[in-house]
Amino acid sequence: MKELLVIFISAVLVNNFVLTYFLGICPFLGVSSQYESAIGMGLAVTFVMTLASSMCWMTYHLLLVPYGLEILQYVVFILVIASLVQVVEMFIKKYSPPLYESLGIYLPLITTNCAILGLTLFMVIRDYNFLQSVVFGFSSGIGFSLVLVMMAGIREELRFSDVPEVFKGAAITLITAGILALSFMGFSGLISS
Amino acid sequence: MKNSFVKGLWKEHPVFRQLLGMCPTLAVTTSAVNGLSMGLAVMFVLNFSSLVVSLIRKVVPSQVRIAVYTIIIATFVTLADVFLKANYPSISKSLGPYVPLIVVNCIILGRAEAFASKNTPVKAVMDSLGMSIGFLWGLILLGGIREILGNGSFFGITLLGPGFEKWVVMVLPAGAFLVLGLLVAAMNFIEKRKTKVKVL
């Protein structure tokens, strides 16, 4: 139990996917200009991450390892993720139209979100068992959403401030992310490695 | 033909202008060597997958094209990864999971979808050569700045003497965001000056 808690805190605060591993930067920069869309994207990513970590764990340990096909892991993982996103999209569309309305446009984008593939690769590298992988997937999603929503809040404020012409757009967003990363470094003492 | 090569070097620079391929750009550029090896790996994958995508562009039905492109890219990434692991284990170790993550690098899928799938093989390779050289110099510049400020060295050679107080934050994640943000602003500044001169 303690071990799972450590995975959770580490993935949400200490080794945050966006701010320490730079995974999922594209949606982080693209979708973080508005509060509502940031929350939608965060939910969708958390959902897919939790599913992807369990599906990929099963594929890797029950299919690839027994047949010695580890070399195919990148091709297989990306296929699993792409089809998972597709299935999730169809499922939500059929059973929960309001949820589909709010998540809809973000779901297809998730396939090419490097955070999902990165998650499955870290899961293999760190040799997590099934339960650990699921917790890791879920908490990485929470960490991603947390930073995305914080960033959206900051960027909504930024709209009213006087930013120098050349810094407008991507440059100021990157520098804001840098300052956010600096403040998250304060969490690094929470877990002794 | 020349235009498809040159535009990736500056005008449509993948990192500073289009902000594509951010994860490897920010993550591996703690030193110039890492930037160089990442740039070369991306160059290999980008050129070969553009070539293949362009060759099969008339055969692939458009509904499944993205899946086909992804598999082509993943195959070349696996090749690059195995090659690095076998020949340069230390580089492979310091790049870590970011080599396999080239699969989802938006530059590669972006070029496949926007250019290679609509153009002849020669033109597609010219385009991806330009893009990957642009990516390469971007990574070396970013890695170089971070290595000089954070470690006082360049390509592993100590430049600044022992009296230099290292800016450790530059090799940490926060430094990556800050340096890239400043570089993007610098590019905007140069572009603005250029258009101003033209108007005068």
Task: Spell out the blueprint of helices and strands.
The complex is a heterodimer of chains A (193) and B (200).
Chain A: H1 2-14, H2 25-30, H3 35-64, H4 73-95, H5 97-103, H6 106-110, H7 114-125, H8 130-158, H9 170-184
Helix pairs in contact in A: 1-8, 3-4, 3-7, 3-8, 4-5, 4-7
Chain B: H1 2-6, H2 22-27, H3 32-55, H4 65-87, H5 89-95, H6 106-114, H7 121-151, E1 153-154, E2 157-158, H8 168-171, H9 173-199
Antiparallel strand pairs in B: 1-2
Helix pairs in contact in B: 3-4, 3-6, 3-7, 4-5, 4-6
Question: What's the total count of β strands of chain A?
Answer: 0
For the biggest sheet of chain B, the summary is: 2 strands, antiparallel
Low-confidence stretches of chain A: none
Estimated share of beta-strand residues of chain B: under 5%
- Secondary-structure element string of chain B: HHHHHHHEEHH
Largest interface: A-B, 40 and 41 residues
Described by the principal axes of the CA atoms, the overall outline of chain B is globular
Question: Whole-number radius of gyration of chain A?
Answer: 18 Å
Largest sheet of chain A: none
Q: Let me know the average pLDDT of chain A.
A: 87
> First CA to last CA of chain A: what distance?
18 Å
Query: Can you tell me the number of structural domains of chain B?
Result: 1
Average pLDDT of chain B works out at: 89
Which consecutive residue ranges of chain B, at least 5 long each, have pLDDT under 50? none
Number of strands of chain B: 2
What is the oligomer described by this structure?
A: heterodimer
What is the overall silhouette of chain A?
A: globular
Report the span from N to C terminus of chain B: 31 Å
Q: Order of strands side by side in the largest beta sheet of chain B?
A: 1-2
